[in-house]
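re: ur question from earlier - yeah i can do the single chain one, its not a big deal. heres the input i used so u can compare w yours
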Amino acid sequence: MIFAKRDRCVALSNPTLALCASFAMVLIGASPAFAALQISSGQTMNVDCSGGVCSATSTDAVLNVGELANMLSSSDVTVASGNLARVIEIDASVSWTSTKRLVLDSYYSIAFNKPVVVAGTGALTITTNDGGQGGDFRFFKKGHVEFWDLDSNLVVNGQSYILENKLKHLVSDIRHAPHSNYALAKNIGAGMRLYTESPVGAVSGILEGLGNKISGLKITSSVDRATVAFVGQLTSQATLHNIGVVDVSVSGSGVEQCAGALVGVNEGTVANVYATGEIIATGAQSTVGGLVCSNQFGTVTRSESDVTISGGSDATVGGLAGLSLGFDNSDGFVMESYARGAATGGANAMVGGLVGNNWGGSIWNSYATGRVTGGASAAVGGLVGGNLDNPGEGSIPVVNSSYSTGVVTGGTSATVGGLIGQDAADSQITSAYWDLDASGINDPHQGAGNIADDPGITGLTTEQFKSGLPAGFSPAIWKEKANINNGYPYLIDLPPN
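and the output i got, formated as tokens:
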């Protein structure tokens, strides 16, 4: 595979900035006591509505959803958190049939916990970071935005979007205008069609899912060096946001293929996305990722994969990303993400529960729980298969505040580690752990397959994992509860289903 160096890194490419953003993102799922304006079935409280604007007057504010619907029947309405509430939470279904516009204006973030339905030809404007920074809009539980009429209007942070409600139209429109911004108007089924190449070749704008998903996508290819994924390429200025692909089936048999559920080559930003299904790439020297095939100087953040994946001989296989490639330690990031599907590779493969080859890339606050299996002479690790330098790009691999729990096995002469299969001597690893009991790698010296007592890697028993956050795990990012994630640490901003 041929890689081209990016001129500039994507947003959140600096680790320090990334951590700052992660801390701010905690606000998304905050309770009203932590400052929020709730749209709910409760009685309106600490909200002043006048002149079409409903503004929070306290850190703990509630706007009754019925009152909001009544206002939207006859006029445009702006709901503004301001610097008091700072966050907007949609905790009751919002629906209107008029032509009026709802503006959600948040100081930081917006959490959609319930549906927002534009049932007529109305309009929706979403604004985040109006005064703050590091916020985003996210979809939790049953939250999503649905437009019944494609003549409706959507504006997000000052940019207009083209609404799409059929996969074939989305594919066609992006092909003809890849730089435009698109949004899913609802959940979309892929139908019975079998694609023989990536449906979407390249995206250079924003593809916004609005919490919706594409289900039942099937792709198969026997072409050598083909890229096989929903989106073939995400360019350096592009963003894929708030979208899921479920029950995806990707099958490839060509040599040196690049196979992923959602994205083939990511040079941009992939955020708040997920995938479920299966990927099988039997051709030699393929790169296979449960979510992204090759994170090529891009960023993957707050994303999850529950995809069973397998690759052939000399393959690079990762539960979330097959390859994560970094330049000068300024990009190539996987942050606040996890994978839980099984990952399998053949002889001489690099296989990791999260990333197959972290080639000068950086992994922050992430984890993997799936079984990891490699063939003869493979490099196999619960989190990362190969954690290697990229000297041509001046980048060394980084793993920080991350862990793995899956069973790890390898064939004859394989290099097998509880966390990392093969590690670079100068890698930067801090606060990284694997489960001594669950992984089957119960030798505390075998965190990396090729380096005994690799600095920064620590083996913990299952009991130790479930007895409090490991050292170096920030309580602003991580949490632990007995009934969530089987008692293991989980990401506050990305709780497992």
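Residues 31-156 form one domain. not sure if urs matches, ping me
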